[in-house]
Structures are given as C-alpha cells and as structure tokens.
Design brief:
This protein has 9 helices and 9 strands. Helix 4 crosses helix 5.
C-alpha cells in the first residue's frame, strides 16, 4: 500500500551544478566507504532531511493530505504543533546531556496526530516527508555502488535519517541496502540512537565496528555534502574524507563556522562515479 502511495510523489530531479571542481587525493588506499544519504546518495529537494521552518512544504498539499487521512486540523496548526513537538523533544534531550539530539519522527507524529495507530502514523509521516523533502537518486548511484561491490569495498552509511530513509533504496533501486552491498553492521542512522550529526557519536560507533573487523579508520573514506555535519566529525574520528559537491541545493561549506574555516576534505567529488578513480 505504501509503495503504491509513494509512486504518486516520485518526480525526477536533476542535481544543480556547483562552482566546485573535483580535486584532491587520498592519503592511503581505502577498503571501506561510508556515505551520507540526503544530498549525497540522493538529490534532496530541501537540501537535507531536517524539518526546518524555512522549508515549509506547500500548505495546499498538506491540506489535501489531511483531508485524505481524515485529520480535522488546519495545515498551519499542524505545522505549529509539529515544530513545537520537535523543539520540546530536542530540549528534553539536550537537558539529558545530548548536544545534537535527533527525534524519532514516529513518536513526534503520534503526539501531533494524537494516535497510537502505527500504520496510520507511518503512512502520514512518509507522505508528509515526500511533500516536504522530495528526493531522487543522484546520477550514477546504482552504477557506482555496483562497481564498489565488484572491487570488494566494504560499504556503510552514517546519516541523519528517519524510519523511512532505508526505504529509499527499495523505492528507487529495487533492493534493500544489504542487497546493494552495504554491510548492516556498518549502517548508522541517527533516529536509532537519538543523536544527530555533527555529533561524533555515530562516527565513533562506526570506528569501533571497523576496529572489530580489523580495519583502521584511515583505510575508510566518508563521503558527505556538509563540511560541518560530515567532514568535520569524520576527520575528528580519523576517517579520510570526501566532500560531495554534486548539487547546489545541498552543498554546505559552512565557512561562517569556526570549526570549518580551516577545514578541507581530502578530496572533492562532483559526481559519484568519480569515486571509482580512488579505489584502484
């Protein structure tokens, strides 16, 4: 049912070129590659997964969704309650000592919609996300993953995400992440831990797992589109780094942040297939 619903939202999106050019080199040979998802593996209409107020989806589409789901609430009120619930949860998590908290969007929508019906919550959350943040695979995504698999490169994910994020692979590539070559023990989604990037927590967990496999962090490459959320914590953890500058919607250089002012990724990529040049 959900798969059929999603089909009505899928619209091809091409990345918007950025001024950056491919550059740099890696310090040593890599045998593992970690990816960010939004803005790196997938074109993201809003630039990332965050439900920022500046990225309000169209009220008309929300209103239609509310009608279809028989929710008697004006769209503006829904958005106000959504943002209030997110901010309250963030505040509670910060008070518990988490610097960069991540909500579980199912719990948030349960509060806002005042229901415990998981099926209803998930359907609404998925449709709302497609309105707020439509996505589409980056060019050469499937081919790049295929080539990395053939070269026996371990694949992982470290990404700010929600429960519907893993479904993107199925909806667009007709496979789950494992079928595409990702090692499930190297997949770290923020919502599962209540902690978001740029916290180093997810990267530390990934580094610990690599150590268990006998892999040094310096032999792993992390690819992301955000200098603060991706490159900064990856470098602090000892990963080699690649800034993905393939779409102007999601490229975040963060030059106004002191942590990024003198920070450089090891390499810059403007197309996923450029990664293949660094695995030989």
């Amino acid at each position: 049912m959900i798969d059929e619903i999603v089909q009505k939202y899928i619209v091809p999106m091409a990345p918007i070129p950025t001024p950056l050019k491919p550059t740099g080199r890696l310090k040593k040979k890599i045998n593992t590659v970690f990816f960010d998802i939004y803005g790196t593996l997938f074109v993201s209409g809003s630039g990332d997964i965050s439900l920022a107020k500046r990225s309000n989806p169209k009220l008309q589409k929300i209103e239609q969704l509310l009608i279809e789901c028989n929710i008697l609430k004006p769209p503006r009120k829904l958005l106000q309650e959504l943002y209030a619930a997110i901010e309250a949860t963030h505040s509670d998590l910060r008070n518990s000592g988490i610097d960069y908290p991540e909500v579980n969007i199912e719990q948030i929508w349960s509060q806002v919609l005042q229901t415990t019906d998981k099926k209803r919550i998930r359907r609404f959350a998925i449709e709302f996300e497609w309105i707020a943040n439509p996505v589409y695979p980056m060019p050469n995504l499937a081919n790049t993953l295929s080539i990395l698999r053939r070269h026996d490169i371990e694949l992982g994910i470290i990404s700010n995400a929600q429960f519907y994020t893993p479904y993107l692979f199925k909806w667009f590539l007709d496979s789950d992440a494992q079928g595409l070559g990702f090692s499930l023990d190297l997949v770290f989604y923020s919502y599962r831990f209540g902690i978001a990037k740029p916290s180093s927590t997810l990267f530390d967990l990934a580094a610990k797992k690599l150590k268990e496999k006998g892999i040094r962090t310096s032999a792993a490459l992390y690819i992301g589109n955000d200098m603060l959320n991706d490159i900064y914590p990856a470098k602090m953890t000892g990963f080699q780094t690649a800034l993905f500058a393939g779409d102007n919607r999601s490229l975040r250089l963060r030059s106004d942040d002191s942590r990024c002012r003198n920070l450089n990724a090891d390499i810059v990529l403007t197309d996923l297939n450029q990664l293949i040049d660094f695995i030989h």
